[in-house]
Amino acid sequence: MPTPLFDYRKFWAECFGPAPELPTTRAEMDALGWDSCDIIVVTGDAYVDHPSFGMAVIGRVLEAQGFRVGILSQPQWTSAEPFKALGKPNLFFGVAAGNMDSMINRYTADKKRRNDDAYTPNNEGNKRPDRAVIVYSQRLREAYRDVPLVIGSIEASLRRIAHYDYWSDKVRRSILMDSSADMLVYGNAERAIVDIAHRLSRGEEIHKIRDLRGTAFINKRIPEGWRVINSTDIDVVGPTKAPINPYQDTSAQTCSESNTDSASEPKEQVVTILDAKQKNEQEVIRIPSFEQVVSDNALYAHASRVLHKETNPYNARPLVQAHGDRQVWLNPPPIPLETEELDWVFELPYTRLPHSSYGSAPIPAYEMIRHSVNIMRGCFGGCTFCSITEHEGRIIQNRSEDSIIREVEAIRDTSTGFTGVISDLGGPTANMWRVACKSKEIEAKCRKLSCVYPGICKNLNTDQTPLISLYRRARDVSGVKKVLIASGLRYDLAVETPEYVKELVTHHVGGYLKIAPEHTEEGPLSKMMKPGMGTYDKFKAMFEKYSKEAGKEQYLIPYFIAAHPGTSDKDMMNLALWLKRNKFRADQVQTFYPSPMASATAMYHSGRNPLKRVSRKSELMSTVKSLPQRQLHKAFLRYHDSDNWPELRTALKKMGRADLIGNGKLHLVPPRQPPKRHQRVPGGTTTFATQHNGLPRNPTRKGKR
């Protein structure tokens, strides 16, 4: 087992004690009595000393180990000089793009440059470069070539191997190659970054640190003592005769009954999976090289499939991918933090405020979460378009109830402007806290991509009554008037505990509750790994029943995605008809955004489905790539917008569905344009759908997906 985060022997600089806020200038260092920093974190976000901001978490965790940590926030990147502002660190530079991928932060799904940035004071845009991790790393190499350089954050995490890049429409090398970093830490990196800091402080060279979970680095060759297994031998690309499937779960029949690998494939011989420790010490899986995945889409989809199958920290094996004559080596994921460790991380001495140098300038991302509490990490949903699972893992890491309540009390006692409303108790999802596999043994062997698709695994403990206890205790805190739940609700999980749904609907919905069916049609839903609409209907019935019993007028706000891989024009037409039948109007819509490493992005790029064994003869999927078709799918979601009617009329005629053009209730669009055009509502990246039956058109409160 790994060393608990709070059990390391502290570095000598602990004598300085915690800084009121981590220094961002030499003057602030002088005020603390520091002659130098041990570690400097460079970030693309404004420095907000709050546990929802990655640079604050890493900074405070390292400070708690006794190290002096400085923050270079949003440095000007056109020269190396701004990167010298805090001097040369004694141990290493840490580089992060911020809480968001810099390309997603700077561009819309239509590749248009954004003019704003929620992670910057005054919402000001253009305060970070494209591909921030690479640019910051290059400037740091110019400034201090000999200082160890460690890259992290979601931007580095999702680019740890060769990956399809939506913005350049090509496969790019591992970010390790382009950044020239010494090491990459992926996922929530507390374990790795603490170990790196202590080992460097003891004089160990960074190029000799090769055994840390959750890290990636470049080797010239495979080290002695490792048996190399070609991934195409264990997950064959091409026609085969009943191949052995090493990813078949042998721990319990219930874990393989709903495994999507077996769908539409011949039954495969089951082999015993050896003890994880034995395999991790002896074997490394070679996935197709950068050059191979660039030239062969089937191999790209195969590499994506193998990577996702090797993400359980308890059975994953190292991966290696050649880039020319060099080898990018990925160690297995980190062991999840125990509850005591996660409590410790969240209860470090954060000010919970933006750095004082920003004055009163608003930072929208901070304003959204300042009175919210993160109760967990991870997600076992496995939605193919989402990056949470790739980054944080499928095993839920939980805070204790006592720790969560202490943070609620801290918000009440210290947060200026607190009105008695906790805006969220959540995380990646609203209702996975303390939900886990019933058996640690089964969990350690499982390689399923989702615990809830195509149905909820019978080994999953779905009891959400602990959340009921937490909610009640939180709203009973003196001075707290209301506790809202704004994180995305996994409604297929919620219906397993009707008492939870009743508690949520009765006390924790502020008029609207956002949920994410994402689509109505089986084709795209099967590629998203999302449940069918039957589960939505079941939750909707519960929601309406308990709202009525509570005497409250409350409404569901469903999210939908346009242009997801596997979606046809007919699918979008049927979704639009469902929206009209149910009197929903989507004011802002989300078009599929191919983020690096996501399974859906592999579908988008390769045209193949990595949820099943990939063959060069596999049926090609429908993918929506052209701008006109992406715009059409988006227009179907906004069928009520008169600006979209000409495009929809043309499309419906081509589809042989001119019968949907007319003025009746069953028609989708009218035959003629109105005499005066309505003002177009600008598109966005988040779907807000509101029922159009006399209700307010658009709720303004936004929550996490």
Short characterization:
By secondary structure, the chain is of the alpha/beta class.
Proportion of strand residues: 5-15%
Q: How does the major sheet shape up?
A: 10 strands, mixed
Mean pLDDT: 90
- Any idea what the CATH architecture of the domain at 5-219 is? 3-Layer(aba) Sandwich
Roughly how much helix do the residues carry, as a percent range?
Answer: 25-40%
Number of E strands: 27
Question: What is the CATH C-level name of the domain at 5-219?
Answer: Alpha Beta
Apparent shape: globular
Structure explained in plain terms:
This protein has 705 residues and is α/β, with parallel strands linked by helices. Among the domains are: 215 residues, Response regulator (Rossmann fold, 3-Layer(aba) Sandwich); 102 residues, no CATH class; 142 residues, no CATH class. The protein has 26 helices and 27 strands. A ten-stranded mixed sheet has the order 3-1-4-5-8-9-13-12-11-10, sandwiched between helices. Helix 2 crosses helix 7 and helix 20 packs across helix 22. The radius of gyration is 25 Å and the shape is globular. The C terminus is likely disordered.
Write the layout of secondary structure elements.
Elements lengths: L25 H7 L6 E5 L4 E2 L4 H11 L4 E5 L18 E5 L5 H5 L25 H12 L5 E4 H5 L5 E3 L4 E3 L2 H5 L3 E3 L4 H12 L13 E5 L7 E4 H4 L18 H4 L19 H7 E4 L3 H6 L1 H13 L9 E5 L2 E5 L8 H8 L6 E2 L9 H6 L2 E3 L1 E2 L10 H5 L4 E2 L2 H14 L6 E2 L1 E3 L9 E2 L2 H6 L14 E2 L3 H11 L6 E2 L7 H4 L3 H10 L4 E7 L3 H7 L4 H17 L5 E8 L6 H13 L2 E5 L1 E2 L7 H8 L20 H11 L7 H10 L33 E4 L14
Parallel strand pairs: 1-3, 1-4, 4-5, 5-8, 10-11, 11-12, 15-19, 18-22, 23-24, 24-26
Antiparallel strand pairs: 2-14, 6-7, 8-9, 9-13, 12-13, 16-17, 20-21, 25-27
